[in-house]
């Protein structure tokens, strides 16, 4: 059984990293697995692009065109909408796809694969939902909109919504092109699985919940005191970690609520000042708004260094207002960190309220601050967050468990095709 994975990238974005980890896990378990990407960022020699130099040029050109078209349609730059009018790669033309028994799709936007190209695939497709775009008229996160359940149109995310706007036309195109394709849906969270089951495009498809996996042998608890001493960070600091988000980025990521929570903690009567630790690239606009005691770790490509950075913290904040199952939640849980997040999207799959963290019921900075306050207080009283988070990650979110689930799914589709 041969499997080929198609993803816009293999690193940088969370979706690309998740795709690469699945591919690598399958390779380690003896599966004949190949990965093709539009933009290769890792050093993994098993991941390929088509004719790297020329393909990279066309990929960048199409990515530029797709981004420009998206800006033309989008109401706000802080939202994300993919009209899918540009595409640099027709998968059916590549020998690795032609030879494969199963085609695994991931995030294919950014000018990588147009919807019409998928129409030419005549073999089982397993589509892992990094976000909702595969079953919407162009949005990657629909918020309260339910247009994807019937027919899109009057899209709240574009400048000129109308009954037959770009969202209506794209959803109609997907329905026309994909209705007889052999597509199975792999949902990383129960939340996105429920949305897919409501959707016009996928409600009659097979939908499997396969939690995103994390390398629990790389991401594991380490001695906080020693790590802080190595980096000159005071032991008494109460450090809360979060990944970099910017004030001008997607509002869905909750930057405003995060800033509010940090301010509330700083002004609280019990003087529970915290030290923010930011992982990832940070814009100058964000630095001007974050507290002056913020520690900037920068972008970390090495997973071991990333795990060590997590382990210097006392807690991890994930302020997303709408999200699937972000890697930072899984990685930090595997490192034994308590998580503070809103009770949205796929986060309840990994954050169990008052067990390994805190799920804020309301989308406000005050509720987020309450979560940080509660976690730090409970931690000082000896609540075993380390054990709770680690056990949950190992039991439910290991790469091995994820790979076994995918192998079982692939095998069932492969056997069905051979009958």
Q: What does this protein structure show overall?
A:
This protein is of the alpha/beta class. About 40% of the residues lie in helices and about 15% in strands. It contains 14 helices and 13 strands. It has a seven-stranded parallel beta sheet, with helices on both faces. Strands 10-9-8-11-12-13 form a six-stranded parallel beta sheet, sandwiched between helices. Strand 6, helix 6 and strand 7 (about 205-210) form a beta-alpha-beta unit. Helix 1 (about 15-30) packs across helix 14 (about 400-419), helix 8 (about 255-265) packs across helix 12 and helix 11 (about 325-335) crosses helix 13 (about 385-395). The longest helix has 22 residues, at about 50-75. It starts with a strand and ends with a helix. The model has no long low-confidence stretch (mean pLDDT about 90).
Outline the secondary-structure elements.
Elements: E1 2-9, H1 14-28, E2 32-39, E3 47-48, H2 52-73, H3 95-99, E4 102-105, H4 115-118, E5 125-128, H5 166-178, E6 183-187, H6 190-198, E7 206-209, H7 224-231, E8 239-243, H8 255-267, E9 275-279, H9 284-289, E10 295-298, H10 303-310, E11 315-318, H11 327-334, E12 339-342, E13 357-360, H12 365-380, H13 385-396, H14 399-418
Parallel strand pairs: 1-2, 1-4, 2-3, 4-5, 5-6, 6-7, 8-9, 8-11, 9-10, 11-12, 12-13
Helix pairs in contact: 1-14, 8-12, 11-13
